[in-house]
Specification:
Blueprint (H helix, E strand, L loop, with lengths): L5 H26 L1 H10 L7 H32 L3
Helix pairs in contact: 1-3
Length: 84
């Protein structure tokens, strides 16, 4: 089994997080913005502010790093199960 290069995991995770954040921005800020506003008004809650958005961005980068680490952890097993 190979060792995990954590520097590459973090770099790949940040790239993955950037892609996730771009998709979330397109979906939530442009496509679903009116629906989010209506839903928050229906729940009698304030609109999501800068603090909430900052937390969501950080969580997406964390998700990217986590997914990249899981891939790096299972890759040796997958290569052993499916040799070329």
């Amino acid at each position: 089994m190979g060792k995990i290069n954590y520097g590459r995991v973090v770099l790949g995770g940040l790239v993955a997080g950037l892609i996730i954040n771009a998709g979330e921005m397109i979906l939530n800020a442009w496509i679903l913005m009116k629906d989010w506003d209506e839903a928050m008004k229906a729940l009698n809650r304030p609109a999501i502010g800068g603090g909430g958005i900052t937390v969501m961005i950080a969580l997406c980068f964390g998700l990217g790093i986590l997914v990249t680490w899981v891939y790096a952890a299972i890759r040796p097993g997958l290569q052993a199960a499916c040799p070329r």
